[in-house]
Amino acid sequence: MIVVVNTRFLLKESLEGYGYFIKEIFSRLTKQYPQHQFYFLFDRPYDAKFIFSDNVTPIVLPPPARHPLLWRYWYDVKVPLLLKKLKADVFVSPDGFASLTTKVPQCVVVHDLGFLHFPDAYKKSHLKFYKKYTPRFLKKAKAVATVSQFSKNDIVQHYNIEPQKIDVVYSASKDIFKPIEWSFQQGVKQKYTEGKEYFLYIGAIQPRKNLINLLKGFSIFKKWQKSTMKLVLAGRLAWKNDAFLELLKTYKHRKDVVLTGYMAETELAALTGSAYALVYPSFFEGFGVPVLEAMNCNIPVITSINTAMQEIGEEAALYFDPNQPKDIADKLMLIYKDETLRARLIEKGNAVAQKYSWQQTADLLWQSIAKAVRD
User: Fold this and answer.
1) CATH number at residue 106
2) Contacts with 51 (C-beta within 8 Å, 6 or more apart), sequence order
3) In this predicted model, what pLDDT tens digit does every residue of 315-336 receive, in sequence order?
4) Cα 8-11-16 angle, rounded to 5 deg
5) C-alpha closest to that of 95 among 36, 43, 34, 30
6) Residue 259: beta bridge partners?
7) Over the chain, what is the mean pLDDT?
């Protein structure tokens, strides 16, 4: 079988959500199925480390598709021509986009519908594209995969897609996220927080992640508890973050907030494993990988209610209303003062994390790919 994979998000030195998903899954599937030929489609020069096995052929298909007009051109003109030339059996697109002009069966991974729920967090040109084309992509695909039951229900509800067309493949934590020895933790704390304990947020700095309310909640916590606790925000500055940066300039506890910028996987795993707790205040997520990563590191989790994180975290996390800074502060205070609760959350979190693995995700996605070809 000839499997063509959209690997636009395998970007050297700047892997994020989609990129990690592609890397973890196809580094496994390409080795697991040596009898099949995989073609990886890049829209710019690629790093050789992403060519995971001998049955992978990389193809650079310009131009770099970085905005809606080029998305249309890349998916509806360049990709179909190549699929025909390669005599592809299936096209796998893990970024939620499909080609509307090819006859080749497609398996599309739609991680979430955040653009419908929090449109202000998106660039106007991107939002218009998502709203117009997502229903067409879902209709065109032979199989749709998503990362949680929460996201599947959301897709079915908003686009009236038959449930049997959508496969839940979940996501997982990377293997390097694991418990860290106490002595190593001290070195990490010394590097980032002058040796102080810290709450940790992981993710891009952008509106949907709700970091303004996190700062407000942390401020209330500092008012209630005169501690040396720090807040570390680990992630790149993404988009629409002017309000956040302006608030930070005049933020009373600015010296207790650490912005790391984009971090490599190994450094991020060390930072996670040394945290006092993960605080993940996002308004909306299709899965919430940092939640599992923290649980794998034996780090307790505080996160938002009524989104996919509650499905994934089960009873192993503390939940707050992301719209209420005081509720965030309440949960920060609770986990700070109650060591018994913290220990119980760590134990439960470790058990929850064992339910998920990238191998399971890879196997489930392969079933979805096979369904696309079969149907």
Assistant:
1) 3.40.50.2000
2) 40, 58
3) 999 999 999 999 999 999 999 9
4) 95
5) 43
6) 233
7) 95
- Token readout for 152 is 């599947």
> Half-sphere exposure (CA, 13 Å, Cβ side) for 42?
16
The answer to the question of residue 263 being in a domain is yes
Q: Per residue in 228-270, pLDDT tens?
A: 999 999 988 877 777 888 888 889 999 999 999 989 889 999 9
Let me know how long the chain is.
Answer: 375
Give me the DSSP letters along 315-346. TSEEEE-TT-HHHHHHHHHHHHH-HHHHHHHH
How is 73-91 classified by DSSP, letter by letter? HIIIIIHHHHHHHHT-SEE
Residue-number span of the structural domain to which 18 is assigned: 2-172+357-374
Give whole-number Cα distances, 95 to 20, 98, 101, 160, in Å: 11, 9, 17, 21
Which two three-digit tokens encode residue 221?
């916590």
CA atoms of 126 and 115, how far apart (whole Å):
9
Distance CA 200, CA 275 (A): 6
Number of domains in the chain: 2
Asked if residues 151 and 287 have their Cβ atoms less than 8 Å apart, the reply is yes
**DSSP 8-state secondary structure symbol assigned to residue 361:** H
User: Which residues are 198's β-sheet partners?
Assistant: 230
Q: What is the DSSP letter of 276?
A: S
pLDDT at 358 over 90: yes
SS3 label, residue 144: strand
What whole-number distance in Å separates Cα of residue 19 and Cα of residue 141? 21
Q: Which residue has the tokens 């939002």?
A: 127
Q: Phi and psi dihedrals of 326, rounded to 5?
A: -65, -35
Band of residue 341 on the pLDDT scale cut at 50, 70, 90? very high
The answer on 321 and 260 residing in a single domain is yes
Q: What are phi and psi of 107, to 5 degrees?
A: -115, 115
Mark whether 290 and 202 lie in a shared domain: yes
Say yes or no: 237 and 367 in one domain. no
HSE, CB side, 13 Å, CA atoms: give it for residue 329.
16
Q: Give alpha helix (H) positions in 38-113.
A: 68-73, 79-86
